[in-house]
Amino acid sequence: MKTVVLAFAFALGPCAATLAADYTVATYDVSGMTVSEISASIKNAGPDGYAGSTDLEPPSYTFDFADKGGKCATQNAKITSYEIVVKMPNWTDEGSASSCVVNSYKKMRSALLQHEERHVKLFTDAKPALLSSISGVNLPGACTAETISKLEEAANKAFKAKQASVQKQNDDFDAKTKNGVTDKPPVVLDNCP
Q: At what angle do helices 99-134 and 145-176 cross, to 10 degrees?
């Protein structure tokens, strides 16, 4: 049996969609009556030419400042927005294609969703560490306007460093699974006779 490999991407960036349980699902339309036509449509319309992607919208967070033992420190840190978006293909010609092509597409899309949900788990598991990165950041001295400004910079830098670590975890996951190709089940479209 011949297969067509469909890769996907992980990215941090904006994406409009509708809300699902732990993440938001956004779709893009693909068309075609054969596996190769669907594959070409995915490469043309998919996120950066891939079948799917998982994006973390830029998180928002807040914290207060307090004088603590001769230091100005963050306290009451909260992540106020943490939206994970999974982008998936929506095949518009399903009702007109052969059962072999329909089954191949459904199998690939199911495998793709399973793979993307593993990215969602990586993001979800990282949220406490992201919050921790901005909790308890401190600088010597009282909480003056200048110290608070420097403290905000330090907290933002710590948050971005942790975000980069989360990105690397997702990139490493994609490298390990060869963008879903070595996943069980693999993210591939099986060719049809």
A: 150
